[in-house]
Amino acid sequence: MENITKKLNITDVERRLLLPENCLEDLRSDLESYLKFKDEEGRVWTFRCRASPGGRSKPAFYGDWFSFVREKGLGVGDVVVIISDKEKNIAAGGCFKIKIKKPASKHYQNE
Predict the structure, then answer these.
(1) Where are its TM segments located (predicted)?
(2) Run of H or E residues at 63
(3) Is residue 70 part of a domain?
(4) Is residue 109 part of a domain?
């Protein structure tokens, strides 16, 4: 699996994290599953991943996703990166890694 990078929009922050269609088979095999993610501090989060039948909808994260957003102070424009650790077998209880990238703040000087 390649890394999944997503710039957050208002839906991602307030309702659910929508992911690209092509990552569906890399993340899960059922229409609904619970996936574990380890953040940069080593904390493990469990996100509920859901998709509509037929495989045409984008998978979405719910559950702990909202706690993650609040605790990390995520907002529109922030970026999350999901990394699969190929050394671990995800189906056997391994974790994905999740990283946050905040956009650089722009400082303006009055001259």
Answers:
(1) none
(2) strand 60-63
(3) yes
(4) no
Q: Measure the CA–CA gap between 21 and 106, rounded to whole angstroms.
A: 33
CATH number of the domain residue 68 falls in: 2.40.330.10
| Cβ-based neighbours of 49, under 8 Å, separated by 6 or more | 27, 28, 32, 33, 34, 35, 59, 60, 61
Rounded to the nearest 10°, the torsion over CA 7, 66, 45, 93 is -80
User: What's phi and psi for 80, nearest 5 deg?
Assistant: -110, 145
Q: Does residue 10 belong to any structural domain of this protein? A: yes
Considering the domain boundaries, does residue 16 fall inside one? Answer: yes
C-alpha–C-alpha distance, residues 88 and 61, integer Å: 21
Structural domain total, the chain: 1
Which residue matches tokens 């609904």? 32
User: Which residues form the domain of 26?
Assistant: 4-101
The alpha carbon dihedral of 59, 20, 9, 72 has a sign of positive
Decide if pLDDT at 34 tops 90: no
The length of the chain, given as a count of residues:
111
